[in-house]
Amino acid sequence: MKLSIVIPCYNEEEVIATSYKRFTAVMEANSYDYELLFVNDGSKDRTEELLTGFAQDDHRVKLISFSRNFGHQNAVSAGLHHCTGDVAVIIDADLQDPPEVIPQMIETYEREQCNVVYAVRRKRKGESFFKRMTAKLFYRGLNLLSDFSFPVDTGDFRLIDRYVLDAFRQFPEKHKYLRGLFCWMGFKQVPFYYDRDERKAGETKYTLTKMIRLASVGLFGFSKKPLRLAISLGCISILIALALVLWILYLHIFVAENVMPGWSSTVIIILFLGGVQLFTIGILGEYIGNIFDETKNRPEYIIYKKINLDETK
Fold it and tell me: Which residues make Cβ contacts (< 8 Å) with residue 110, sequence separation at least 6?
């Protein structure tokens, strides 16, 4: 069985040498037939230079470099499109997900005779309270709003077999929420629990803006509930407007002398209805924007350099 380790990288010069040593040590200690497939996602530091040196000295290190930064999900996709193993493990270069647990994931895969082993975080060391809370809210909120049920407290760190790899390569869509796609595929999937470590060096590349963007891709890519929410808000606003009409009629008929003329109620109604309309238009805009991006049919990423890879791919 050949094992492919898919490792997306973006500005990881401070940790990439340690990552290479630890990945190699784990693979050699367990005598795996393996490849380390690093995907350089348009790094602006010395990440590509260091990876090029590793690949020139070690034929089992393979390198894909993008023409610019296309994003973490696209980098993982490129690795999955080009890996040659019977089993692939997706893991980041920052060593928060310890490569030393990969043999245990393989043991779980073989014991359970499954297709996917997804890693579930028991502890998240070195992360702020805000990051932990927003992560919990993200996973549970996505499950609440999505048409599918996703495992909570999981990331892209997982093991997938050749059946899942072949199925993944059939997906033509450009905006991928990978952990959602793997759940959507089905197959037999088994959890693997582990403790997440602190980042060994550098800073996280998932800023709040990128986290919100990822949440948006996950939500609008796997659920029509926001559209149904827009319909519900429209119905609620209509009911509120009707109730206000009845209330105003009642005041004019029965207590006309106490009715205070003014513009406040009108302004409140206009603001309420306008807010609902803008909110629903925004939801529609997200879906239409995704359709627009897909119809342009641009590639997910552009590769300008490959090392130790089949150039026909």
Answer: none
